[in-house]
Design goal:
- Helix 9 runs antiparallel to helix 11, helix 9 runs antiparallel to helix 14 and helix 11 runs antiparallel to helix 13.
- The chain folds into 3 domains: 113 residues, Ribbon (CD59), CATH 2.10.60; 123 residues, Phosphorylase Kinase, domain 1 (2-Layer Sandwich); 206 residues, Orthogonal Bundle (Transferase(Phosphotransferase), domain 1).
- The protein has 503 residues and is an alpha+beta fold.
- The N and C termini lie far apart (95 Å).
- The chain is elongated, with a radius of gyration of 28 Å.
C-alpha cells in the first residue's frame, strides 16, 4: 500500500512539473515568447508560436517566435556578426544575450541556456532528429521537383540569390553574408533583416501592377517592385520561380530578394532586383536612335535571355524550361553595356520533361493584348502543350525586334517610336480589335524600305518575318534566332554609340 502511495505521489509530482512548464501555453500547444521587433507581430511584448528565438545581427537585437515549419532553417545559423538562439519553453528567450566574443569582445552576461530534465532533453533530441530527417527528405524532393507553396503562411518568405552578371558592385555586398555559391539563399531571418535595411529613394515607374522604386542597400542602388494587392499572384509566382529555379544569366534580370512587409498598417509585396538606370527598353527607345550594331546587340541579348528561359537544364543545379507569356519592351531592361535583360516572370509557365510536369500557375491575369499571338487571340492554343507557350514568346519577340529596328538609323533615316500595330488599333486595344487585325485580316507591322539596304537590318527583318508566321509551329525557335544573329558581323569591342540624350 505504501509503495502504491509513493508511486502515486511521484506521478502527481511529474504531472505538476509538466503543468508548470507549460502554464503559459495555450490548448493548441503554442509557447508564450517574449517579443521585441518591428514586424508588428508583438502583443503586449509577447507572441505565441512553436519556437522562441533571439537574434543578434550587427548589434541589432530581436526577440519573437515562429512555427516548427521554419525551425530547421532558422535555428542552426550563427556566424560572425550574426547569431540565432532558439528554445522551446515559454518565455525562455526573455534573458537571452549574445554569446562571448561574438563581435571580438567578451560579453558580460553569458547566454541563457535552458536546463530541462533528462526525460525532456531525450524527448527533444528525438524530436529534432526526426524533424531533421523529415526536413532532409523534403529538401531533396523539392530540389528535384517544383515547389508549390500551399497556404498564406508560406507566402511570407524571403529569398536571396548571389547575382551573376556584369554588376561587380553587387558582389561585395553578398560576400559578407554568403557562405557558398550554390544560389540557395540565406536564412529567413537574415533576409528580413536585409529587406528592412533598404531605403526607398525615388519612384521610377508606375503601372497596373504597382510601382517600381529605386532604393539603396548598403550603399548600392537596387530596384524595388511593389506589387498592388490585386496583383498578388504575380508577386507570388515570381517569388516561387526565383526561389526554386536557377535563373542566373546575364540577360535575365538579377534577383536579390522577395519580401512581404508591413507599411502604414497595410501589407506590401516587395521584389528586390538589380537596378538598371537606363530603364525599360520601352523607355529607352523613346529617346535618340540606334546604330545597326546597337540594334543587333540588343536583339541578340534578348534572344539569349529567351533561350535560357526556354531551355531545360538537367543536372543537380539544373532548371526546368520556362515560357515567359508576357514578353514586351516594357518587360525588358537596358543595361549599361547596351545589352538587355528580361524581367517580369509573373505569368511564366514551367515545364520539365525529365520530371514530367507542366505548371501554368494560378494567375487569372492574361498577357498584353497588343503582343498576343494569333492562336491566343482566336483561343486555338493548346494549353496542355508547353511548346505552344514558347511559340507565343517567339511571336512577341518578333514585335520587340520590330520596335528596336524602327528606332535604328539607316541612311540617315529613323522613325519615331511607335508600339506594334499603332496604325491599326487604338492605344488601348480590345481583345476583339486585336483579333480582327491579327487573325482575320492577318496584318503585320509595316517595315520601312531603308531596313532592307543594310546587311544587319535586312537579316533582322528576315528573322522577324519568320517569327510572326500565322502558323505557330512554323516559327523559328529562340535558339535558331540566337544562332542566326550570332553569325552577323559584330566587332568584339563594340559598345553602344547612341544612348539616351542628356543621360
Amino acid at each position: 500500500m505504501d509503495g502504491s502511495l509513493g508511486f502515486t505521489l511521484v506521478l502527481v509530482g511529474l504531472l505538476l512539473l509538466t503543468s508548470a512548464r507549460h502554464a503559459d501555453s495555450e490548448d493548441d500547444g503554442k509557447l508564450l515568447c517574449m517579443c521585441e521587433n518591428a514586424k508588428g507581430t508583438c502583443v503586449n511584448d509577447t507572441c505565441r508560436g512553436d519556437v522562441c528565438f533571439y537574434t543578434w545581427v550587427q548589434g541589432h537585437e530581436e526577440k519573437g517566435c515562429f512555427s516548427n515549419h521554419d525551425y530547421r532553417e532558422q535555428c542552426f545559423t550563427s556566424f560572425e556578426r550574426f547569431h540565432v538562439y532558439c528554445c522551446r519553453e515559454s518565455r525562455c528567450n526573455a534573458a537571452a544575450t549574445p554569446p562571448p566574443n561574438i563581435n571580438g569582445e567578451t560579453s558580460t552576461v553569458a547566454p541563457l541556456q535552458p536546463r530541462p530534465e533528462l526525460w525532456i532533453a531525450a524527448a527533444l533530441l528525438l524530436f529534432v532528429t526526426a524533424a531533421g530527417l523529415c526536413g532532409l527528405l523534403i529538401f531533396l524532393r523539392l530540389r528535384r521537383a517544383h515547389v508549390r507553396l500551399k497556404n498564406a503562411d508560406e507566402h511570407d518568405i524571403s529569398m536571396l540569390k548571389v547575382p551573376n552578371g556584369e554588376d561587380p558592385t553587387y558582389g561585395g555586398i553578398y560576400d559578407e553574408f554568403c557562405t557558398s555559391g550554390s544560389g540557395t539563399g540565406l536564412p529567413y531571418l537574415v533576409q528580413r533583416t536585409m529587406a528592412r535595411q533598404i531605403s526607398l529613394v525615388e519612384c521610377v515607374g508606375k503601372g497596373r501592377y504597382g510601382e517600381v522604386w529605386r532604393g539603396t542597400w548598403m550603399g548600392e542602388s537596387v530596384a524595388v517592385k511593389i506589387f498592388s494587392s490585386r496583383d498578388e499572384q504575380s508577386w507570388f509566382r515570381e517569388t516561387e520561380i526565383y526561389n526554386t529555379v536557377q535563373l542566373r544569366h546575364d540577360n535575365i534580370l538579377g534577383f536579390i530578394a522577395s519580401d512581404m512587409t508591413s507599411k502604414n498598417s497595410s501589407t506590401q509585396l516587395w521584389l528586390v532586383t538589380h537596378f538598371h538606370e537606363l530603364g525599360s527598353l520601352y523607355d529607352f527607345l523613346q529617346y535618340g536612335g540606334l546604330e545597326p550594331e546597337s540594334c543587333l546587340k540588343m536583339c541578340l541579348s534578348v534572344a539569349c535571355g529567351l533561350v535560357h528561359l526556354h531551355t531545360e537544364i538537367v543536372s543537380s543545379q539544373g532548371k526546368p524550361a520556362i515560357a515567359h507569356r508576357d514578353l514586351k519592351s516594357r518587360n525588358i531592361l537596358v543595361k549599361r553595356n547596351g545589352q538587355c535583360c528580361i524581367a517580369d516572370l509573373g505569368l511564366a509557365v514551367i515545364h520539365s520533361q525529365s520530371n514530367d510536369y507542366l505548371d501554368v500557375g494560378h494567375n487569372p491575369r492574361v498577357g498584353t493584348k497588343r503582343y498576343m499571338a494569333p492562336e491566343v487571340l482566336d483561343e486555338s492554343i493548346r494549353m496542355d502543350i508547353f511548346e505552344s507557350y514558347k511559340q507565343t514568346d517567339i511571336w512577341a519577340l518578333a514585335l520587340v525586334f520590330w520596335e528596336i529596328s524602327c528606332r535604328t538609323t539607316v541612311n540617315g533615316i529613323v522613325e519615331e517610336y511607335r508600339p506594334p500595330f499603332f496604325d491599326l488599333v487604338p492605344s488601348d486595344p480590345s481583345f476583339e480589335e486585336m483579333k480582327k487585325v491579327v487573325c482575320v485580316d492577318q496584318q503585320r507591322p509595316s517595315l520601312h524600305n531603308r531596313l532592307h539596304s543594310h546587311p544587319i537590318m535586312s537579316s533582322i527583318v528576315k528573322i522577324m518575318k519568320e517569327c510572326w508566321f500565322q502558323n505557330a509551329p512554323a516559327r523559328l525557335t529562340a535558339l535558331r534566332v540566337k544562332k542566326t544573329l550570332s553569325k552577323l558581323d559584330l566587332p568584339a569591342d563594340f559598345s553602344i554609340k547612341k544612348l539616351k540624350q542628356d543621360f
